[in-house]
Amino acid sequence: QGQLVESGGGLVQPGGSLRLSCVASGFTFSSYGMNWYRQAPGKERELVATISSTGGRTTYADSVKGRFTISRDNAKNTLYLQMNNLKPEDTDGYYCNARFWADSYWGQGTQVTVSS
Predict the structure, then answer these.
(1) SS (H, E, C) 57-99
(2) What's the rounded Cα separation, in Å, for the pair 84 and 3?
(3) How distant, in Å, are the alpha carbons of 20, 99, 105 from that of 102?
(4) pLDDT exceeds 90 at position 113
(5) CA–CA distance from 3 to each of 14, 62, 66 (Å)?
(6) C-alpha to C-alpha distance for 55 and 34, rounded to whole angstroms
């Protein structure tokens, strides 16, 4: 059974940076497209960024374009999200997701809070 474990969240001031990590196990990480989502209680889940299995193709939500960078290291079974110039509206739980056809795994999430 596949497992994803996120880390790297925390409290940061506006304008600051964080790097989230998501370590995968129990499935062939290099075959899966990977995604970062975010969601706060009572809000809809938002797709933040996607990356193809090889890392050659990425997409971003308009709200984070130019500030966030998604990347992956298939040798380390790890997905990253570099977040720069953070804003209070980026405060959310961040979740990584692995997807291959109908197969999908989710992490437990890591909280990011942007506040002065």
Answers:
(1) CEEECCCCCCCEEEEEECCCCEEEEEECCCCHHHCEEEEEEEE
(2) 27
(3) 26, 7, 10
(4) yes
(5) 32, 29, 30
(6) 9
Cα distance between residue 73 and residue 40, in whole Å: 28
Per-residue pLDDT tens for 32-56?
Answer: 999 999 998 888 999 999 999 999 9
- Angle, alpha carbons 23-39-49 (nearest 5°): 55
With H, G, I as helix, E, B as strand and everything else as coil, classify residue 8: coil
18-25 and 46-51 beta bridge pairing = unpaired
Look up residue 107 and give its DSSP letter: B
Rounded distance between C-alpha atoms, residue 84 and residue 98, angstroms: 23
Nearest of 95, 81, 76, 74 to residue 31 by alpha carbon = 74
